[in-house]
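Ticket #4471: structure output looks truncated?

Reporter: J.K.
Steps to reproduce: submitted the chain below (383 residues) through the standard prediction queue, then opened the result file.
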Amino acid sequence: MKGKRMALVFAGAAAAVAAVAMFGGGAPWSDNFESYPLGPIAGQGGWEEWTGSQNVSGQVTNAQAHSGTKSLLIEGGVSGGPAGDDTVQRFSGLTTGRYLMKAWCFVPSNATGAGWFIMLNQYPNPLNWSHQVTFNATTNMVVADFDQGETNLIEGQWVPYKVDINLTDDKQDTYYNGVPFVIGQSWKDGVSGMGISNIAALDLYGGEFNSNPPGISGMYWDDLVLAVVPTIASVSFLSPGGGNAGGTIADLANLDDSVYRTFSDGTSSVQEANLTAMVLGMNTSVGNPSRLCATIKAKINQSVGGFLTISFRNWNTGDFEVVSPAFQTTTDFKFFSIENVPAANYVRAGDGRIEMLVKSIVNLPISEATFFTEFDLAQVGVS
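Returned output as attached by the reporter:
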């Protein structure tokens, strides 16, 4: 803790890390700092200074930026000067389910001292810490204060930072530059202990000149997002649109060497000879869902290239409606994802039924016997 205070996978579940990476989900909050004038951020966009503190606001700056032209600068306190930056964003109503906190961090190559990324389950009265990680530019380490998990600090470039928070199961996993260095830590008892199932606040803290370690000379944050991780719906049937299919439904559940193969239809029609399709159906237990997302990992066997589309059945009309762009396909596996699709017409009332159609088409007419699409992963998420 801070020194100054507190004395929808088909037929199975894919790896948690993969699900987090592919499903951004609906974002209850995000900030890229582009809309603010340069200077103190407190009093704008929900940002405020730490409870009871003054003159501890981080600064909107154009000295560095991950995207756009601006980011948030956090600095530590200096001897005889102001206290370290201590900038807070509050949240409300996040008491169950799974969330992903994502941020980009930049620590200059000449930085010294340490800054902190902190999340609390209660704020401001009482205070209870769930997550606190030190970015130490002097030792070049990123250290989880609650369990001493650590990884190497990267300086002079923007680095992704993620906290996967599962309030339902009371767990949190932390990743820096894709490296997991805290896995399965309790959220309620993460730092302070005796906490509650709640995400109350984010605190970006610069430290003090006399803290141990001393405060950071300067670090930057950008593109912060707190996103809902959707519930993954389980498939109840799979129907290939043409020919024989290789593989099983289970082969779509995980990122492994097993694939599901769909062939073009056994016909002389040019339109059908260069098309493969599959329909996947599932039921969700999420009541009154608002958003759908989907991820497909696929490749084709023809070097001419092609495209892939994702559609959901509109239960009002009975027709499939395309909800994705035309993704470009090649002979190499690629991920194709859509997010934040309004669920209103695509989840059937009463039983939560969802049906997804995936079409893969090559750019040139070819013999149906030589065209197929391989799928290594297919998921639908509901939130």
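Triage note (M.O.): checked the attachment and the full token line is present. Confidence is low (pLDDT under 50) at residues 3-24, 266-270.
Status: closed, working as intended.
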